[in-house]
Amino acid sequence: MKRVAVYYFSATGNTLRVCKLIKENLEALGAKVDMIKAEEKFDAEFSPENYDTFAVAYPVHGFNAPSNVVEYVKAFPSGAKGYYIIKSSGEPAPANRDSSHQIVDILRKKGYEMLDEFHYVMPYNMIFRHDKDMVDMMWKRAVDAAPFDAKEIFEGGRGEIKQKLRHKFISRLFLVEHGGMRLIGRSFKVDMKKCVKCGKCVRECPMKNITFDGEKFTFGKNCLGCMRCSFNCPTNAFNIGILQGWKVNGAYDIGDMKEYEEGKVCKYCNKSYKKYFTAKGGNSIRNKSKD
Prior knowledge:
Blueprint: E1 3-8, H1 14-28, E2 32-37, E3 53-59, H2 67-73, E4 82-89, H3 101-109, E5 113-121, H4 132-155, H5 165-173, H6 176-184, E6 189-190, H7 200-204, E7 210-212, E8 217-219, H8 228-232, E9 238-239, H9 270-278
Parallel strand pairs: 1-2, 1-3, 3-4, 4-5
Antiparallel strand pairs: 6-9, 7-8
């Protein structure tokens, strides 16, 4: 039986949903799949050396992988096997393609080879809120693509990935977000008139960056910008500083599947979304290498 590890970080649930889809399809093919949170301390029991292959999964943050996932893979032991990248983002912009460059560089030095990447478009948890039609089309595309991507992972398939110079330039330029969010995150505030003191934001922050003394919230210097706190706040009590105009609050209703309708595609990034929704097969980056 083929053993597969999926090391994942999911800020507000989208990446986890995608990984569960791929897991279900891998298991249907006969694989044994372990899902391991990449926001917890690395556990040698679930080391890549114990698996036939593995995937690293994350939500794209400013055309890059989140810094906690980058730090997580640094703990991997040296090895010599192929692995895959699974990523989710709110738009199919080509600049997202080189978002894994830090992870790839770290694991290459440890002896691992990245075989292919799979990019899933899921609803934004900041910038703006996708409408129901867009969400349903995104989910249908994910459900349709997952069997192809799972089959490639199961069979040890390889994609021909050629990153363009402009993609590399953009992703590296936006690395400034990693440091920027540490600063911006300290300016987050909570409206105590709305807050019900449920403690959800404190408990669920992946960086343990939020503390509450019973009267006042304090935000540390380790914010990822994952928006788990503001997105999941049950009373929409968060103010996220200079990013407030981009705030999205409240879970999406994900599960319905709508067939592609050109007139339902939002105007933002319109051509890229249309191309994504009408693509055949899986969500391998190699399917989009001509962009």
